[in-house]
């Protein structure tokens, strides 16, 4: 099994299903064909746009009253610039025991491991008690427009379920008792926005008194950068940070809104990558990432735009987001329009249920402990579509000790993305045990 799951990961990476947020990118049909060959069965292909294919298998359970479980990996990956990599990002080379490639961690490692665990049920070798769904979907990196969104809204009969396993699978953390396994139970909301300003064109050689749209936009963006981001300390965060092997005074600072930013600066001195994560899951974050305006160097621009990535904590809705934007932009806010692009409120699943216990039982089987900590993600996943319909969704994995939580965060969408072959095998083993315990409970 071990060589087979790693080989499947390599094949998925080599399919180069790169999502450029355009309808004609992704090419997930390549990996659908790979999985159909792996399972030896065609499954059901869901294709809302040409080439944007998802592959679904729904195995009926032996007990109609038993809970159902959806395995929800995705097939697409973000672009990779080969100039920043030490290897070809789509060659899936194994170097020093690590599989290198775009998607190795996000999330083709999980896709391969889930396929391995689900195959005995899909081929009929094993029979689940409740329905088991394997849904390898398209377009997660584009917001699920050609994948999870229409599948969950239009074909719930095919892809729906009571419980969901998807991303993110994190490496373990530590506390005085030993390793602690992060279980992703929720994610921040995404409130991407486009700011727009207008002015009057004129000759760039005479800027005095000009009505420049770009000047208004620069003032607005400066205000966003200069204004403190809103803080909220949610119960899940307190449980997470209190479970780690950190100085007690630092922990107290990280759960005190008045001391939080100072504590993050202190944490960053030793672990800047982890500090970045801590900041993200305790603040509403605003990141202006694309700014444009004007048409020519000697023409005063009559319009300007800025795309802002906004991630909000539970309880922060669009009115809250817009109110903060207006406050941050100050006087410039009167001259800048806010256009929502994606509004997805934060979602969190409860713990202490059949899936949570199945994960704990599996860790006990494999590693001899049940130490798990609920973890909030700062990124968006397809789980939000299922949670919106009442499903309980988690992400979990197993890693060897060659990668830390912080190192993994840096590799997401980064150069030289990689995962150890052993970790892929360990995660496949975990999922196999989870399915066993879930359907035997």
Oligomer: single chain
Based on helices, strands and strand pairing, what is the structural class?
alpha+beta
Radius of gyration: 23 Å
Mean pLDDT: 96
Number of helices: 15
Distance between the termini: 25 Å
What strand line-up does the widest sheet have? Answer: 1-2-6-3-7-18
Helical content band: 25-40%
Sequence stretches where pLDDT stays below 50 over 5 or more residues? none
What percent strand? 15-25%
Shape: globular
Largest sheet geometry: 6 strands, mixed
- Give the number of DSSP strands: 19
Annotate the secondary structure layout.
Blueprint: H1 2-14, H2 29-39, E1 44-46, E2 54-59, E3 69-71, E4 94-95, E5 98-100, H3 108-122, E6 132-136, H4 148-154, H5 156-159, E7 163-166, E8 173-175, E9 178-187, E10 189-198, E11 202-203, H6 213-226, H7 235-242, H8 248-254, H9 260-268, H10 272-280, E12 285-293, E13 299-300, E14 303-312, H11 318-329, E15 336-344, E16 347-348, H12 354-367, E17 372-377, H13 383-387, E18 392-395, H14 405-411, E19 418-420, H15 421-440
Parallel strand pairs: 3-6, 3-7, 7-18, 9-17
Antiparallel strand pairs: 1-2, 2-6, 4-5, 5-19, 8-9, 9-16, 10-14, 10-15, 11-13, 12-14
Helix pairs in contact: 1-3, 1-15, 3-15, 6-11, 8-9, 9-10, 10-14, 12-15
What does it look like?
The protein is α+β, with helices and mostly antiparallel strands and 441 residues long. The chain contains 15 helices and 19 strands. The strands form 5 sheets. A 6-stranded mixed beta sheet has the order 1-2-6-3-7-18. A hairpin with a 2-residue loop joins strand 8 and strand 9. The mean pLDDT is 96.
């Amino acid at each position: 099994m071990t060589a087979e799951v790693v080989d499947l990961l390599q094949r998925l990476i080599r399919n180069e299903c790169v999502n450029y947020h355009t309808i004609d990118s992704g090419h997930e049909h390549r990996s659908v064909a790979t999985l159909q060959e792996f399972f030896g069965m065609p499954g059901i292909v869901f294709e809302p746009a040409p080439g944007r294919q998802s592959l679904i298998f729904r195995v009926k359970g032996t007990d109609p009253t038993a809970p159902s479980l959806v395995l929800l990996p995705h097939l697409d990956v973000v672009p990779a610039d080969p100039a920043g990599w030490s290897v070809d990002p789509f060659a899936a080379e194994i170097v020093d025991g690590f599989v290198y490639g775009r998607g190795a961690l996000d999330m083709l490692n999980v896709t391969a491991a889930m396929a391995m665990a689900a195959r005995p049920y899909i081929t009929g070798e094993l029979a689940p008690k409740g329905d088991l769904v394997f849904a390898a979907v398209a377009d997660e990196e584009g917001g699920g427009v050609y994948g999870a969104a229409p599948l969950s809204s239009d074909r719930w009969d095919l892809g729906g379920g009571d419980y969901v396993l998807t991303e993110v699978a994190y490496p373990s953390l530590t506390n005085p008792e030993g390793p602690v396994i992060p279980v992703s139970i929720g994610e921040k909301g995404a409130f991407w926005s486009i700011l727009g300003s207008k002015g009057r064109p004129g000759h760039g050689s005479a800027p005095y008194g000009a009505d420049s749209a770009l000047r208004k936009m620069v003032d607005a963006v400066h205000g966003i950068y200069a204004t403190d981001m809103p803080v909220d300390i949610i119960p899940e965060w307190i449980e997470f940070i209190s479970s780690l092997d950190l100085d007690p005074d630092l922990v107290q600072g990280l759960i005190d809104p008045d001391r939080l930013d100072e504590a993050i600066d202190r944490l960053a001195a030793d672990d800047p990558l982890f500090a970045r994560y801590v900041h993200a899951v305790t603040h509403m974050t605003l990141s202006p990432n694309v700014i444009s305006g004007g048409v020519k160097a000697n023409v005063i621009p009559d319009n300007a735009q800025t795309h802002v990535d906004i991630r909000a904590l539970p309880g922060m809705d669009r009115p809250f987001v817009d109110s903060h934007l207006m406050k941050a932009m100050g006087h410039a806010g009167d001259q800048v329009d806010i256009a929502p692009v994606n509004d997805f409120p934060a979602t969190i699943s409860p713990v202490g249920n059949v899936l949570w216990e199945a994960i704990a039982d599996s860790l006990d089987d494999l590693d001899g402990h049940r130490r798990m900590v609920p973890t909030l993600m700062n990124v968006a996943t397809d789980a939000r579509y299922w949670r919106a319909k009442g499903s309980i969704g988690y992400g979990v994995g197993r890693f060897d000790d060659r990668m830390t939580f912080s190192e993994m965060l840096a590799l997401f969408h980064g150069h030289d993305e990689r995962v150890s072959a052993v970790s892929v095998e360990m995660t496949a083993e975990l999922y196999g045990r989870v399915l066993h315990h879930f359907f035997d409970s």
